[in-house]
Write a structure and sequence with these properties.
The longest helix has 29 residues. The chain is built from 6 helices and 5 strands; from the N terminus they run αααβαββααββ. With about 190 residues, the protein is α+β, with helices and mostly antiparallel strands. Helices cover about 55% and strands about 20% of the residues.
């Protein structure tokens, strides 16, 4: 991922340099793409460094990180996102690999819903031994359900769910949709 992003940034910067004198508007477009890609790369690198820090091997730290991410989404997209976390969740201790996958699942779930037009999002994280239960509910109005369906059927998502032995369910109701993940953690 990092290598691909750096390669794209390198190509875009070279194209911007070439077009700077003859097509300044095109050069500006390339620079905007560089800015966007480098910003996304900084976020990915920050996530990677956070993931490998053993001090973050508990759900309390994951919840704090998810809250930070949700706040950024709210500010960037002007969407309502409520997060409810049961008290017994924060005491869970997790290994680095599971923590990394959980954070990715939480983050990609809410990101995909917001990017496809979902609003009035409600996330609930609970623990019923031996499973962590993650539910993401949102209003359908304004959502591009076809695009969301395509995103949820990605191989990367299926691989991550399989890798942690989770169960995934997606329900589309009349006015709302619900994603549910059941993840064994003990």
């Amino acid at each position: 991922e990092v290598s691909t992003a750096l390669g794209n940034i390198n190509i875009l910067s070279e194209m911007a340099r070439i077009k700077a004198e003859t097509e300044p508007q095109k050069s500006k477009e390339f620079i905007e793409q560089i800015q966007s890609k480098s910003h996304n790369m900084m976020i990915a690198m920050d996530d990677m460094l956070w993931t490998i820090d053993p001090e973050n091997d508990n759900m309390g730290k994951i919840i704090l990180r998810v809250r930070e991410y949700i706040d950024a989404l709210r500010n960037r997209h002007g969407v309502q996102i409520d997060l409810l976390v049961d008290k017994n969740v924060e005491a869970l201790q997790l290994n680095m690999k599971l923590r990394k996958e959980l954070f990715w699942l939480f983050k990609s779930g809410i990101t995909n819903v917001v990017k496809t037009g979902g609003h009035n999002c409600r996330m609930h994280i609970s623990f019923e031994r031996p499973n962590l239960l993650y539910t993401l509910e949102f209003d359908n109005a304004g959502s591009d359900m076809q695009q969301l369906n395509n995103l949820r059927q990605r191989k990367e998502l299926a691989d991550k769910i399989k890798e942690i032995n989770a169960k995934f369910d997606f329900q589309v109701l009349k006015t709302k949709s619900i994603f549910s993940l059941t993840i064994p953690v003990v």
